[in-house]
Amino acid sequence: MVTETTDTNARTNSARSGFGRLKLCLVVAFLLVGVVYSGVLGYIYFNQQSLVFKPDGELPKPSEVGLADMEVVSLPMADGTLLTAWSAPAVREGAPTVLFFHGQSGNLSDRSDRLREILNSGFGLFAPSYRGFPGSAGEPSEEALIADAILMYDRLEADGASVILHGQSLGTGIAAAVAAERPNARMLVLEAPYTATVDIAAERYPFLPVSALMKDQFRTRDLIESVKVPTLIFHGTLDETIPVAHGQALAALAGETVQLFVIPGGTHNDLWSHGLWDEVQTALSR
C-alpha cells in the first residue's frame, strides 16, 4: 500500500510539474508574441510616412524626358515652403488646363508619357512635385498636400484657366479633396483611386489596428458624395495595387456626377494605353 501510494503521489507531482512547465511555456510564448506585435505596431507607426509617401530619384529638367514645352516653376506655399512644378499653357484656344497630381512613388519624370499625351492634345498642364519629393522642400502629409493643391487651383483659376483635376493613385485623394472644395472645376479625373488609404492598409494588414495608427488616411469615400464636379473614374480589373472594388465603391457613393470606366485587363499603371485620355477628351466634348 505504501508503494502504491508513493507511486500515485509521484505521478501526481510529475503531472503537476508537467502542467506547470506547459503553463510557463505558454506564458513565455504569449509574451514573445506580444513583444513582436508591439514591435510591429511601433515600426508601422513611426515609419508610416515612408510607407505612404515614397519619393525617389532626382527631378530632371522636363526637356530631358521629352517635355521641352514645359517650364520649371517655383511655388511658395502659404507657410513659405518652396515647391517645384512643371507648367505649360494651353496652345489650343479654349482648351482647359490639367492640374495633375501624381502617385506615391518616384518623381514627376516617371509620369512623362502621361504628361506628353496631355500636351499633345493642346491642353495646358500644371504638375507639382509634392512636399518632400524631388525638387520640393518640406515634409509630405495629407493636410499639407491638400492645402497646397487648393492654393495651386486658386492660382490657376485666378489666371483665367478652366481647370481639370487629375489624380493618379495617391493623387486621387488630393484631387477629390480639391474638387469637394472647388465646385467650379471643369472635371475630376480619378485614375485607379482608393476609397481611403486607411482601407488599403486595413486590407493589407488585417491583423493591425491601422485606423488607430494612420495619420494620413485620405478618406475619399467620406467626401466623394459632396463633389459636384463631373467625375470620371478609371480602374483596371487586374489592378493588384488598389483593387477595382475601390473605384466601384466610389462610383456608387458619388451617384449621378460620376462615370465609371472599368477596364478589362487593365492594371494599376497602364490605363492610358487602354484609352483613358481619349475617354476624357470625349467626355469634355459633350
Can you give a write-up of this model?
The chain is α/β, with parallel strands linked by helices and 286 residues long. Helix content is 42%, strand content 17%. The protein has nine helices and ten strands. The strands form two sheets. An eight-stranded mixed beta sheet has the order 2-3-6-4-7-8-9-10, with helices on both faces. The chain has a two-stranded parallel ribbon with strand order 1-5. Helix 4 packs across helix 5. The model has no long low-confidence stretch (mean pLDDT 91).
For the residues shown, what is the average pLDDT? 91
Number of strands: 10
Which regions are unreliable across 5 or more consecutive residues at pLDDT < 50?
none
> What is the helix fraction of residues, given as a range?
40-55%
Shape: elongated
Largest sheet: 8 strands, mixed
Strand order of the largest sheet: 2-3-6-4-7-8-9-10
What is the C-alpha radius of gyration, as a whole number of Å?
Answer: 26 Å
N-C termini distance:
102 Å
What structural class do you assign from the helix and strand content?
alpha/beta
- Could you state the order of secondary-structure elements as H and E? HHEEEEEHEHEHEHHEHEH
The percentage of residues in β strands lies in: 15-25%
Counted by DSSP, the helix tally is 9
